[in-house]
TrEMBL record:
<dbReference type="GO" id="GO:0006098">
    <property type="term" value="P:pentose-phosphate shunt"/>
</dbReference>
<keyword id="KW-0464">Manganese</keyword>
<comment type="function">
    <text>Catalyzes the reversible epimerization of D-ribulose 5-phosphate to D-xylulose 5-phosphate.</text>
</comment>
<dbReference type="GO" id="GO:0019323">
    <property type="term" value="P:pentose catabolic process"/>
</dbReference>
<feature type="binding site">
    <location>
        <position position="176"/>
    </location>
    <ligand>
        <name>substrate</name>
    </ligand>
</feature>
<feature type="binding site">
    <location>
        <begin position="196"/>
        <end position="197"/>
    </location>
    <ligand>
        <name>substrate</name>
    </ligand>
</feature>
<keyword id="KW-0862">Zinc</keyword>
<feature type="binding site">
    <location>
        <position position="7"/>
    </location>
    <ligand>
        <name>substrate</name>
    </ligand>
</feature>
<keyword id="KW-0119">Carbohydrate metabolism</keyword>
<keyword id="KW-0479">Metal-binding</keyword>
<feature type="binding site">
    <location>
        <position position="174"/>
    </location>
    <ligand>
        <name>a divalent metal cation</name>
    </ligand>
</feature>
<feature type="binding site">
    <location>
        <begin position="174"/>
        <end position="176"/>
    </location>
    <ligand>
        <name>substrate</name>
    </ligand>
</feature>
<comment type="pathway">
    <text>Carbohydrate degradation.</text>
</comment>
<dbReference type="GO" id="GO:0046872">
    <property type="term" value="F:metal ion binding"/>
</dbReference>
<dbReference type="InterPro" id="IPR011060">
    <property type="entry name" value="RibuloseP-bd_barrel"/>
</dbReference>
<dbReference type="InterPro" id="IPR013785">
    <property type="entry name" value="Aldolase_TIM"/>
</dbReference>
<feature type="binding site">
    <location>
        <position position="32"/>
    </location>
    <ligand>
        <name>a divalent metal cation</name>
    </ligand>
</feature>
């Protein structure tokens, strides 16, 4: 069964604690926190203050997706705030190896993220050192977009590289995930599913977390 990472981007910010408790109780192992800087992506979302505020009210893995240009500048701020896992985009820095090293040396799990237009080939040199790879299944910047099915092939390639080299990283998908789109990704080897609008735009977010899990039984 896939692990579920609800993205608070689509939660009710005024009732954030209530929404987080609902998905945690429903069995969501991760909480996905989308940090957007208005440069790497057009939107601006929230920063380390949110991670610090959420840390004491959730036992979930706090999964920080940094959509930030030159993320090295902020890694320590986010690990100090309580992030368990930090994702940095291959496209956001000329120093992806250094950025991943920084995450690990600050005590968090390190994730490399690739946009839909970036190949698996380009991140091969850092696969030996990561705890998780995030395959974007939409172009980053906004919730509520449509899953790009062509990305499933990248999951297959990553899964094969895992097998061939004895790597243990998780493979996460992010964007347009629901109880239907998750199926092919799971079959290809995805182990963690981010879902924002599908979970939080629903009347009952707990049901949606369970529906994603059921679809991958
Ligand atoms: O990183 C992002 C968007 O850039 C995501 O984490 C979104 O929050 C996913 O939203 P949905 O596509 O599930 O609505
Ligand atoms: Fe995300």
């Amino acid at each position: 069964m896939i692990k579920v990472a609800p993205s608070i981007l689509s939660a009710d910010y005024v009732n954030l604690e209530r929404d987080i408790k609902k998905v945690e109780k429903a069995g969501a192992e991760y909480l996905h926190i989308d940090v957007m800087d208005g440069m790497f992506v057009p939107s601006i979302s929230y920063g380390p203050g949110w991670v610090k505020a959420i840390r004491p009210i959730s036992n979930q893995t706090l999964d920080v997706h940094m959509m930030v240009q030159n993320p090295e500048r902020y890694i320590k701020t986010f690990t100090d705030a309580g992030a368990d896992l930090i994702g940095v985009h291959f496209e956001a820095t000329p120093h992806i190896h250094r950025a991943l090293q920084m995450i690990k040396s600050n005590g968090a799990k390190a994730e490399v993220v690739i946009n839909p237009g970036t190949s698996v080939e380009s991140i091969k040199p850092v696969l030996y050192m990561v705890d998780q790879v995030l395959v974007m299944t939409v172009n980053p910047g906004f919730g509520g977009q449509k899953f790009i099915p062509e990305m499933v092939n990248k999951i297959k390639m990553l899964n094969q590289l895992k097998r061939e080299n004895g790597y243990h990283f998780d493979i996460e998908i992010d964007g347009g995930v629901n109880n239907e789109t998750v199926k092919s990704a799971y079959q290809a080897g995805a182990t963690v599913a981010v879902a924002g609008s599908y979970v939080f735009d629903a009347k009952d977010p707990a049901d949606r977390v369970k529906a994603i899990k059921r679809a991958t039984k």
